[in-house]
Amino acid sequence: xxxxxxxxxxxxGEPFEAEVEPRxxxxxxxxxxxxxxxxxxxxxxxxxGTCTIMMNGVSARSCLMLAVQLDGAEVQTVxxxxxxxxxxxxxxxxxxxxxxxxxxxxxxxxxxVCDILESLxxxxxxxxxxxxxGNICRCTGYDHIVKAVRTLVDERDGAAS
Amino acid sequence: MTDAxxxxxxxxxxxxxxxxxxxxLLTGRGRYAADIQLPRMVHLAIxxxxxxxxxIIGIDTDEARALPGVIGVFSAADFAHVPDIRxxxxxxxxxxxxxxxxxxxxxxxxxxPVVAIVAVSRYIAEDAAALIDVDYDPLDVAVAxxxxxxxxxxxxxxxxxxxxxxxxxxxxxxxxxxxxxAANTVSGQFRLTRKTSMSTExxxxxxxHDVGKDVLTLYGSTNVPxxxxxAIGRLLELGGNRFHVVAPDVGGSFGGKGSLYPxxxxxxxxxxxxxxxxxxxxxxxxxxxxGSQAFGEEVEATLAFDxxxxxxxxxxxxxxxxxxxxxxxxxxxLEPVQVAGFMPGPYRIPHFSATxxxxxxxxxxxxxxRGVGRPMAVFALERLVDKAASRxxxxxxxxxxxxxxxxxxxxxxxxxxxxWDRSGFQECLAAACSAVxxxxxxxxxxxxxxxxxxxxxxxxxxxxxxxxxISVAPGMPMxxxxxxxxxxxDSTGAVSAVFALASHGQSLETTLAQIVAEELGVRxxxxxxxxxxxxxxxxxxxxxxxRSAVIGGGAATKAARALAVKVKRVAATLxxxxxxxxxxxxxxxxVPGTNHSIDFPELARLVYSDMSTLPQxxxxxxxxxxxYDPVFGTTTSSTHVAVVEIDPETLHTSLRQxxxxxxxxxxxxxxxxxGQVHGGVAQGIGVAxxxxxxxxxxxxxxxxxxxxxxxxxxxxxxxIDVVHVETELPDNPGGFRxxxxxxxxxxxxxxxxxxxxxxxxxxxxxNSLPITPNKLHALIAAASRQxxxx
Lengths: 161, 790
Fold this sequence. Notes:
The complex is a heterodimer.
Chain A: E1 5-11, E2 14-20, H1 26-33, E3 52-55, E4 58-61, E5 74-76, H2 89-96, H3 106-119, H4 125-132, H5 143-157
Parallel strand pairs in A: 1-5
Antiparallel strand pairs in A: 1-2, 3-4, 3-5
Chain B: H1 22-26, E1 42-48, E2 54-60, H2 62-66, E3 70-74, E4 106-107, E5 113-119, H3 122-131, E6 133-138, H4 145-148, E7 164-172, H5 175-181, E8 184-196, E9 204-210, E10 215-220, H6 225-235, E11 243-246, H7 262-274, E12 278-281, H8 284-290, E13 293-305, E14 311-321, H9 334-342, E15 351-359, H10 374-392, H11 396-403, E16 412-413, E17 419-420, H12 425-434, H13 438-447, E18 452-464, E19 483-489, E20 495-499, H14 508-520, E21 527-530, H15 548-575, E22 583-585, E23 588-590, E24 597-599, H16 600-609, E25 623-628, E26 634-646, E27 653-663, H17 670-690, E28 720-724, H18 742-759, E29 768-769, H19 773-789
């Protein structure tokens, strides 16, 4: 309600400068100010993981952050992952395994998978399930999501599928 | 030339075609209602009741109105021109409630909309909401249904005779006499607590009024756009040519987006009055306190059987906690009456008697939720079946085998009047049980001391694709038994298939395209399935009640078949052959063994643009509209087997294995069917182990965040084995049976039976779900106290 703050950031490789209210949520900034509506908002209290983005190479919940916290950051959203004509391998794996139904939680899962593929060994399906447990999906029962991630881990590790 | 002509037509129905809706949803290019941004759009916030039952003494809106950026503040008096929402019923002695779009004089649950605020941003609208002061005079409450059903209890609706808004009885044979004469009976009091569908997308609505054309459009996260269009059209006196409802991408519903909501009426009306687009997006707390809720039922039931385990009679008394208002259009009878209707299950039970009552309580209205009535009915009956098995010392699966309706006994009429058509009752039981090594599990159960191991079986049948002869909700005076498909080839040769359905995760853009492609002879990706927009389809209600594949798919089959006949007739004239010689496939129209072959764009050009090649009378419009009404419905059957391990220290129940066998007729897309089963089972796990909406003695909800209302994550859901069983196909155009809800119907009972099996040695029974570690602890403590006293 007081003055606005100026922020500078990079989103999906594109530089942005904006003036935002200090109280504006990062998720609302990305969606309403930048028009990047691929990042969805499911609970606004950090439980469902639907709003997950990558910030400086690490997954983050954009509903628990303020836009001013994005100042100086390098942000990646689902729109920066791949396009309809040229999907990212993670998106393809979800497509092949029918790892989405209504699609609302999907961007959050994709961004989480970006992170865990980089940061975790994910040797067993139980480890994959554990790593995904911060994201809620109400449609798929997770089975096909786990299979998609298993495929990606095997590809990463050079394992014969 | 002839070498290039394909002789075998590719099959699309029955193959795991990858979803056509995926690319946009995977790349953030979908469009959900909350994503819609329109010029001059304003934002709605709602002040909701913080009292369960109270008189509104006054509302002070001055400060809110004075806040810069606030455009309007509205309360009940500002909606005096909008009639109350009432859900009528044909049921005798049914009392309909009146629900104003904003509470008038009295509030009846915490979360009920009281004041609507419109501002230039959602942030300012919420600032203004915090400045509104509503003065309440609390009224007495009877929060629990049993308490509210007492004639002396405080009445929630003064104009009604009682809180009990309906009573219905079912009777077949002579249940009382059969009970008395029976060698054995088992009884129980079973309960499913309240839960909610919790789709990940909160409800969102945007209404836009084109002032010049006087056309109002409501974009909404709904799975029943046709019902919403008809209802709001009546409330606001708008014809369907001046008012459209569009369901864009919708982020799940499971029933929660399947009723008319006051917010839909409010944004629609305000968009016209303000001449600006109005947007409302619920937050999670609003969803958990004002979205429609599920279950809230108690069943007291007795099963009678002879010494061979043959079922003789079933008696049930059902009490439904329907909440403050009778939900539109389904009525308060939707859930509880279907508990009674499905209570006899897939078994031969000659004598049946049930009484069902629905009671208004100061809680959010209950509405449709995946499985409607059946999760409660199956839980109660399947617990009784296991108790009977234990009484007689017969293995639970064997007792089911002795009582399930056999192949030669169809059609079978249950004691409640439902008629099961041929479905794989016995086949599903056998298939599910053979996927689990029951003998090895029994041995392991006896051996293990570190974990309590339990196995549970549950069989059920459900009626899907319900036609016009049966009300989807008991007594509801609305025909939901038909859907229409309009399949057309335009002048570019492209195929569109238009439906009044509203996919919200069911993959209809793919499965309906598979059906049309199969019948017409094109590829699935050539077919654009258009749905979820009332402007494009004159009538049709939406996607719910496991109906879209059967009814929508039936209409698609009929329409595409009829269009293929036209296509072949036109091509036959062109080729100078008999229409029966013409085939279509893979986008080509051809005569096998000849060089007669054209594609759909060429056919369209000849019909629509070329005025010389074909005679005028042969240039048929390449468009067919067909309606399909199954009249009755078709039976889907299934058996679930669950294996659980309970940690004796923490009492945490983990699911080790879950097997589902299901007869859903012909599979359109096996991958999609599996996904539907998995998702349904995951929600069934929530019902069994986690999900519970709790209220305190004053009616205050105490599970208003996802930290309090727990839903299954990937860590709680095991791999799920799905075994497809196909018996005789049902008599409908595609041979399909509905299967979207089933996972949630069978899993709670199977898991409850597995937990009961695991703790049987402690003298503990599982009669209420969810069975959480806390509840299990209390049961075990009570049992050991009782043992100590004996």
